[in-house]
Request: fold
Amino acid sequence: MIDNGLLVQMLLGALLGLSVYLPLAAGQLSLATPAFYAVGGTLAALLSTRWSGLGATADGGFPVPSLLLELVLGGLLAGLLALLVGRLVLRLQGIYLAIATIALVEIVRVAILNLPFTGGAVGIFAIPQPFHDASGYLLPALALLALAGWICQRLEGMPLGRAMAAIRGDELAARCLGIDTTRVKLTAFVLSAVLAGSTGALAAHFLNTWNARQGSFDASITTLAFVVLGGSRTWLGPVMGGLLLTALPELLRPVGNVRLVLFGLVILLGPVLAPQGLITPALLERLGGWNPRGSAEGRQEAQP
Amino acid sequence: MSAPLLEVRDLSRRFGGLLAVDRVSFVVQPGEIFGLIGPNGAGKTTLFNLISGVTPPSSGAVLWRGEPITGQPPHRLNRLGLARTFQNLRLFDGLSVLENLLVTLQRQPRSSALAGLLGTAQHRRAERQRLDTAWQLLEELGLSALAERQAGTLAYGDRRRLEMARALATGPSLLLLDEPAAGLNPSEKDQLCQLIGDLRQRHQLTVMVIEHHVPLLMRLCDRMAVLDFGVRIALGTPDTVRQDPKVIEAYLGSGSGGGNTP
Reply:
């Protein structure tokens, strides 16, 4: 059933779900997450295998501080790319933005496939391991998820998060109310990229090999499904979607070849049965006082 | 007399073959309520869009306290002190009434993103201040009982007032109201009239208002401009405008009694 390896994969799925959620919280349908994931992963794979300064040992070991450094660098590089690309693509809206970001995913994939130092179709393998087994990755993956979730939760009660919600609600109204929508959208896009980049860096070590297939159009759709199935109104939705949809194909393994059909059915029926996704603000409120938008701390005391 | 708050100079906007706004000029003085009337399709909303930066003008200039602001994006104009409402209400329907205001209270007081993430004392103080301002505005516009309701579920008149509250939350000097009385019943229209006057006093506002309901506008405004087919055909106090033959012909004909309709 669920072993540590699958648990780590589920956590990585949840992280990618959040990466899709962030631009969506500002009303931007970006499918670029796999591109940034690929950039972060490739950087980590290259650094750890080519640069001895990070301290990879002959028997394939790797110091944990170097892993953390790679998480930061992977996030930074992806964020930098998002900053450059975002200025251009975020002029587009709705489905046009989705298509432009799919193009970005393809460009990054083809680049990684053909660059002279990324190992072509085989990719980079024998990526050194900071931990003895998969369970070692649980802690960093959980910590990254906790950090991302915390940021998303805090955003709800601060100006940036509210500006994102406003743009999602009505972009023109937001502009006329003094919100610099270009800047807010770009910030959400960069945050999304940083998260995907760091996730990629962690995933590269966890998977042990890395190649261009890691960031593909398929992944764009899968990560989007995390958000659609989980629900895009609160950050818990994409987390739940990422956890479930990553686990499901593995849990269905015992039923044999039908499993992919069943998986497809879940993705198909999810939006039909729960159009808002599994986790909705209303559900969270019913579950007991969790304020899904966490806004207005102390609104009671301010109430006259 | 002090410099005009807003000056529109030879402003035009062409949409393909249609000249929606045709070399319109006027000034709006600080503190006045300035009306904009005209038949449907006369270019009133287009003019608002030009002034608020939503649509760039084809030619002409808009000046704010004597400085040219033509072509600036809406958010920058809003930060200068120009706020507007929309004819077909554009609330953030998914957010609560209170949140609709909090969204707008972004910059006063300022708090950094890092302070917000860490929930520092500075951030909490800023949040409390935002909440106070938001509650004050809700109180002022009679919306405080609805604070927790989703904006999308409000009754029409409440939605209109929420949109005004939201515009006021940006701390404007000039408030552009696009048909604020549309869809209101006569008693609500009277209340709105009263409210606009009160708000002008309390917030030291200058108000520009588009309105179809002529009696209401006549009562409310200090001065008004009349548009017809994109051209400003009259400008002045309600009394002058009421007696202008061109206005009577174009717009007031049937409504004002005594007009000679062609």
Strands of chain B lie at 6-15, 18-28, 33-37, 59-64, 67-68, 82-84, 174-178, 206-210, 223-228, 231-236. The radius of gyration of chain B is 19 Å. Residues 91-171 of chain B form one domain. The CA atoms of residues 66 and 130 of chain B lie 31 Å apart.
